Amino acid sequence: MRALCSAPPTSPSSGSSSSPQAFRGFHNTYALGEDPAKDSILEVAVLATDGNLVRQIPGPTLVLGLSLDAEKALSPELSHRLSENGLLDLAKKSQLTPTDAEKQVAEFLRQTVPERTTPLAGYSCYHERSFLLKRMPAVNEYLDYHNLDVSVIGMCCSRWGKTGAYTEGETRLRAAEDLQGHVNELARAKKTVFGL
After folding, report:
1. What is the CATH number of the domain that holds 130?
2. Is residue 34 included in any domain, yes or no?
3. Are the C-beta atoms of residues 165 and 191 closer than 8 Å to each other?
4. Could you read off the pLDDT of 25-83 as tens digits, one per residue?
5. Four-point Cα dihedral 59, 56, 111, 103, nearest 10
């Protein structure tokens, strides 16, 4: 699962590039499965940007603790992928709880973006939102209800004959790296798809 939350740490009155309408929220998380009712978040990263995706402010990147039972429940394929990128070993050593992770992400948002005016942005945002609702409700409540789903741009381009104008980023299954990739992908689309 991925998502992203962003905006500059400036007052809404400091100019159009930092007005509430321009704030973007980018938040990226990886969970142990697709069901927020039973699957837990393994890693989360947050990044703040201005509305033009020029100024970027990295937030916390957090690896949550993985219980022995949760590790045993991993599919062989997922276990292999998480071992390859080092996330599995980090999670087994981590003592960070979901509550502590939620507090750190929420605090970053409070210091960086205005409350209830910053949309959730990233990939498959509705799915991200479902995990936030269940696992990090304080983060979800701080954000605006709108989503900015980067993947929708690629879907529209493929259906409207503009595949050459859009390039998807690579997925590395690490929250911070993929999060930055989402921002870069949106910045490219801003130029090649929207001509801005």
Report:
1. 3.30.420.10
2. yes
3. no
4. 676 777 878 888 888 899 999 988 888 888 888 999 999 999 888 898 888 998 998 99
5. -20
- In one letter, which amino acid is 37? A
Q: How many domains does the chain have?
A: 1
Q: Residues 30, 123, 142, 145: which is the catalytic one?
A: 145
Q: Rounded CA gap, 71 and 91, in Å?
A: 10
142 included as an active-site residue: no
The residue ranking higher by pLDDT, 162 or 95, is 95
pLDDT tens-digit readout, 151-196: 888 888 888 887 776 667 666 778 888 888 888 888 888 888 988 8
Question: Residue 88's domain spans which residues?
Answer: 16-189
